Amino acid sequence: MAEADTATLVSDVYEPPRVWEFDPANGGQFAGINRPTAGARHEHVLPEGDHPFQLHSLGTPNGVKVTIMFEELLEAGFSEAEYDAWMIKIFAGDQFGSGFTDLNPNGKIPALLDKSGPTPFRVFESGAILVHLAEKFDYLLPKTNPARAEALSWLMWQMGSAPFMGGGFGHFYVYAPEKFKYPIDRYAMETKRLFDVADRQLAQTEYLAGADYTIADIATYTWLGNLFHGAYNRCDIFLGLDEYRNVARWVRAIDARPGAIRGRLVNTQAMAERHSAADFDKIEDRSLFDPVRKRPDVL
After folding, report:
1. Are 73 and 139 in contact (CB under 8 A)?
2. pTM of the predicted structure, to 2 decimals
3. Are strands 121-124 and 111-114 parallel, antiparallel or unpaired?
4. Contact 252, 229 (CB under 8 A)
5. Would you state the pLDDT for residue 92?
6. Which of 1, 42, 49, 139 is 20 to 30 Å from the Cα of 278, by its Cα?
7. What is the dihedral of CA 29, 33, 35, 41, to 10 degrees?
8. With bands split at pLDDT 50, 70 and 90, how would you rate the model's confidence at 30?
9. What topology is assigned to 147-258 in CATH?
10. What's the pLDDT tens digit per position in 247-289?
């Protein structure tokens, strides 16, 4: 490799020490919150509403999985799925309050308190919450194999692949303090490969697990849909995501679902908290309810 080519990969050669030590100044935009330790950093009692389900989350792809699921349940007539959604401001460190880490020892959104029965209990990790709600209401997850196995397989595929798109591609393309060719190329390649996996499947089936919409689609849509619609500084252009025509068809179909439209808005700037359906009427920008989701006009 030519010297000039080598220089585009790294600016300084890093020689790892024998034992790694935490450098808090080397964390980029997340330096204020990322540490190599778990547990609560301050005492904080979480608020609690009157509904059977208390969700503590943020309108990120992982958080939106759960709010879309709740809104899909309510759209289908499951009135027992009413929920309160409280915003967790991750850059402010809300996820490190004692109340939140009691719900999720991993200190990540989303976290759910299910108090629909006599004994309240926690459910954490977005995939676990989706499965819990699907089984509780017998909705969007087949009960028998092979359909159930197919839906769960695609759900776990998404859960395992999301870190490559977010913590991998998104981090090095947008959030890292410096941009280097090697990690961006590595995770751009993997992100495109994952889009291709979905595109090939969706060439054969209407939804990921077959003819029916399931929790596997909800989980995957929040990530693939966000990137397709221009997240990470219009990465759809950089990654050439329009070439995945079957993914595009699938994303636009889910875009238009009323439950997905509402779920995308919860715990965002448009609606910080959600305590009843009436909260959606208070959103000023009604274009957010358009069934045709629009990409940003500028980078």
Report:
1. yes
2. 0.94
3. antiparallel
4. no
5. 94
6. 139
7. 170
8. confident
9. Glutathione S-transferase Yfyf (Class Pi); Chain A, domain 2 (1.20.1050)
10. 999 999 999 999 999 999 999 999 999 999 999 999 999 999 9
User: C-alpha angle with apex 64: 59 to 69, nearest 5 degrees?
Assistant: 150
Angle at 61 between CA 201 and CA 252, to 5 degrees: 50
137: closest CA among 76, 88, 196? 76
Residues in the chain: 299
User: For residue 52, which amino acid is it?
Assistant: P
Q: Distance between CA 155 and CA 111 in Å, rounded?
A: 18
* The 121-124 sheet, strands edge to edge: 83-87, 53-57, 111-114, 121-124
Cα dihedral 66→260→232→183 (10° resolution): 50
**What would the DSSP string read from start to end of 64-91?**
HHHHHHHHHHHHTT-GGG-EEEEE--GG
